[in-house]
Amino acid sequence: MENSDPKPQPDIEEKSSESEKLSIAITPAEPTARERLLSDLIDMGFELQLSRQAAELTLDIVEAIGLIMAAQENGSQEISKISKEAAPVLGYKMVIVVRCDLKMKPGKVAAQVGHGVLAAYKLALRMCPQEVENWERIGQMKAVLRCESEKELMEIYHNAVKANLPAEFIADAGRTQVEPGSKTVCAIGPAPFDKLDRVTGHLKLY
After folding, report:
1. What is the C-alpha separation between 70 and 74, in angstroms, rounded?
2. Which of the listed residues 64, 89, 114 is the one where a domain comes to its end?
3. Which terminus of the chain, N or C, has fewer Cβ atoms within 10 Å?
4. Cα radius of gyration rounded to whole Å, the chain
């Protein structure tokens, strides 16, 4: 005689839930903001011990760099002994503004940006060597921005000069893609973030 009692069916929802839990358990966790900061500091070449201490005190990379550099200047391996007020404000970058209306190809843009960086760097070595040194020590940050005309490019250049910032524009020889003498890019800095943002803060990334 067959048993009339229905056989118990597996709980599909329960198995699915267990499967999802297992999947979550083996999925690598995303790095935290503190872990990302620590990784960035180490990539910049700072010592592991100081980088860990800085990442424990702040999540702001500029402030973290300032704390590390203050410790290094004082010959200390203990950032906790240094007040945040004593850490230098070290937000430095170089900005390169590229004319979009010329419709230069990527390789041409890269070459013009390189010319601009080198020209501004040479000028900055004469104008503000300490700021160049600070910029070099924190990773030589650069930002490439866009403008829409030669007039706008030159306005940016003149505003930078008036602000006493190292600034150079590049006039291309015109062998490829653009007319001889075309002003292609303007490089400004390196300089503190706030000074540069007064001149280029309204521009969008290239």
Report:
1. 6
2. 89
3. N
4. 27
Which tokens in the block code for residue 204?
A: 């969008």
Percent composition of the chain: helix, strand, coil (DSSP 3-state, to 5): 50, 15, 35
Q: Is residue 190 reached through a cis peptide bond, with omega within 30 degrees of 0 on the bond before it?
A: yes
Residue 164: closest CA among 123, 115, 203, 122: 123
Residue 194's domain comprises: 92-200
pLDDT tens for residues 5-18?
A: 555 555 545 555 55
**Total structural domains within the chain:** 2
Element holding 92 (H helix, E strand)? strand 92-99
Mark whether 188 and 108 lie in a shared domain: yes
Give yes or no: residues 69 and 162 share one domain. no
Residues 138, 90: contact at Cβ < 8 Å? yes
Angstrom distance (rounded) from CA 149 to CA 146 = 10
Give the SS3 label for residue 75: coil
Please state the rounded mean pLDDT for residues 100-121. Answer: 96
Q: Is 142 exposed, middle or buried (0-12, 13-18, 19+ CB in 10 A)?
A: middle
Residue 181 CA to its chain's centroid (Å) = 31
Q: Determine what percent of the chain is predicted with pLDDT higher than 90.
A: 47
Distance CA 201, CA 143 (A): 11
Chain position carrying tokens 């000028």: 123
Residues 164, 97 within the same domain? yes
Q: Would you say residue 2 lies in a domain? A: no
Please tell me whether the overall predicted TM-score, pTM, comes out greater than 0.90 for this model.
no
